[in-house]
């Protein structure tokens, strides 16, 4: 796994469901709007990473362990979002967003959400 994959995410070029943060996709038309879809994951904090993060906060700098965990969570939430869109017959998710919040003071909730749709290339 490259450093880029550890600290970032997103879809590959050959994805079966196109996920965009825009209302439309240049070169495509929206044939059918299916509706809202979301993918959700909740991750608990590892005690060791919490201790390490606490110590790191004393001197400043990036909390790489927590960054990797959040990247994994976002990627998992996005995979679930894509699976929901496919299950409902979509080949695209428009206006995709992430929402991150605390979950009962024991973990982090990451939700990827958007509008499932069927799109096709303009002719």
Automatic annotation (TrEMBL):
Q: Which residues form the signal peptide?
A: none
Q: Which Gene3D superfamilies match?
A: Hypothetical protein apc22750. Chain B (3.30.110.70)
- In terms of domain of life, where is this protein from? Bacteria
Pfam families, alphabetized? YbjQ_1
Instruction: Kindly give the InterPro entries that the UniProt entry links to this protein.
Output: UPF0145_dom_sf, UPF0145_YbjQ-like
User: Which HAMAP family would you find in this protein's record?
Assistant: UPF0145 (MF_00338)
What the record says about family reads: Belongs to the UPF0145 family.
User: Any idea what this protein is called?
Assistant: UPF0145 protein GCM10018781_11230
